[in-house]
Each structure stands twice: as structure tokens, then as C-alpha cells.
Amino acid sequence: MKKFLFSNATLKVFALALALVAWTSVKLQISKGTSTQSGGTIYKQVLPNVPIYVMQSPMDTNVYDLMPMEASVEVSGSRMNVENIRPESITLYVSVGNNEVMKANLTENTNMVEMVKLIQCKLPPELTLMSIVPPSVRLLTRPVGETNTALPPPVKLNTGGSES
Prior knowledge:
Blueprint: H1 2-6, H2 9-32, E1 34-35, E2 41-56, E3 63-67, E4 70-77, H3 79-84, E5 91-96, H4 98-103, E6 113-118, E7 120-122, E8 128-133, E9 136-142, H5 146-149
């Protein structure tokens, strides 16, 4: 047994040292972030309370209410990009068309149209979207009456020049 334990002792000590170095480097990578195949490290950050916007066509005269009006966004990327990201750099939106409103059903007792829409996201290209919480919103609308859709009369602006 002694012969088995102490033969090639130098080689065994070297193997143990190599295993400790590998274990330490893996532990450091895990504590810093997730290692990528290219050797870089991915960092993550959650940005709470990012506002959600409604994207509608100019011909759509409906007024929309969102529930909820904000969402949390988790992004990933390099350390510098993730640390410098601000909620203003992220655009969360739901797109809705007037045809969707016409096809949707009215809710009981409220005469409002209710739809559930997935939240879409526009990020800077150097970041990756991990998740949006919640992933969808309730969109409520009551079609605007014809009297509310008329534009106000045009206002004549005085440009400061003399009139002939």
C-alpha cells in the first residue's frame, strides 16, 4: 500500500495542484458571472419600473389604458454595457391596430374592449433581453365618440413679418 501511495509522488502533487488551480478558476468565474464560449463573461441586471407605451396608428382614435403600466426588464451583456444601461435606453411597448379593437369582445357591464397583448422590447444592440415581467398587459379601450375625434380649428401663427 505504501508503494502505491508514494510512487510517482511528484506527479501526484502536480496533479493535485493543477486540480486546485482549475477549481479556483471555475469558482471565480461563477462568482463574477456566467462564462461564455468566447471566454468573456455575461453580466445580468434587472431594471424595475420601465414604462410601457402603446404603439397605435395615427388613424386609431381609441384611448387605451394599460394594466400594469410598467414592467421589469432583465438584460445581459458585457460588464460595461450592463452597468451603464438606464431605463431610458429601453423601450417597452405593445402594438395595437384599430382592426384588433373592432374584432375584440366588449367586457360585461363596462362597454370597454379588453385585450391581452405581449410586451415587446427595443434594446441597445449590445444587450440581450433575458426576460420581461410581466410578459403581457391588459389593454382596455373605449372607442372615442365622433365628437371627440374632431381636430381643433387651425391656429394662425404670427411669424413676426409684416403683412401686405
